[in-house]
Amino acid sequence: MVVAIAVVGGFKSEIRAKATGFMGSVTLVPPGQSPLNEGFPFADSLSYAAALDSLRCVESLSPVAYRSGLIKTSDAIAGVYFKGVDSLYDFSFFASCLSEGSLPDFSGGVSNDVMISRALADDLAISVGDKMTCYFIGEDIKVRRFDVCGLFDAQLDEIDKTFALVDIRQVRRLNGWSKAGTSSMEVRIPRRADIDAAAASVENLVSDRMTDDDPSLFTISVKRIYAHLFDWLALLDLNVVMILALMMAVAGFNMISCLLIILFRNISTIGILKSLGMTNRAVSGVFLRKAAALVGKGMLVGNALALALCLIQKYTHLIKLDPANYFVSYVPIDFNWLQIVAVNVISFIVIMLILSLTSIFVSRVSPAVTMKVD
Measured between alpha carbons, how far is 98 from 31 in angstroms, rounded to an integer? Predict the structure, then answer.
């Protein structure tokens, strides 16, 4: 049970981190637009930006700008979204999955640095240090040459192959926007914070603090943007609940078998105790206390083994997975101590309730029969 909780928690934590790494946890966009909005820019100077940034559930607030384009090499071509960010953007996600090269530096003048995924680089036969020719098609065709500074490997091929990270000033120029033109505002929250609660808090603050001079914006949760990923995680939750229920049932019936063996071996003792005046409840209590000690020892050993196995996997990544199917290259582990304690307590209570059924056996033992001497 502990291993199941840790593994499912690991999957949820890793995939959530990857989804929010690309798009943020909550995104502010103009009405009717997606976060990849190219046609309806707004100024990033929001009157409530400081209040939003000071929310307890908000770690950072970043303007981003998008432009779709084509990357062309001598042998291949690929369509991607060029995501423009500034020097204050939180690069921690891209730093964590940096595969080769370095993060882009947008702190000086307009930078030509670009960061793409390793999967896309392999498809296009591009390496770190190469120049990448890109075409942007609109009323006219614009051409830009970027310098590949780094490759990231997020192992979400369907997503990371469609994004390239560039200087936001480059995207604003390509789109013909002002120096404050923005596609959307990304809101990042702490790793374990509740996304739905954070989205509600952001939405409430925006609606309360928005003035006539502010652009009309609404919130989109990353759960809505990448619904297929979070639906898969919700299915994992259902699976683990079923697994835990089955494990509790099996453990309970195994303990009943164990306790019945103890009762059969001590059937004459039960008869003696009942003949001395002990009630059925008191006699059952003696054996339930013995069973509780066995359950407790078993749970201690089980927890120790489970935590040891999980720690080995967490720090060695011994068990590998195919990232094409599981979005990660190894079995991830994440300890949610509240859930681990809860499953231990609930398991103990459920097993003891199941074992209390043995009182029926004790009530049927007759002292007159068990104490007969031939």
Answer: 34
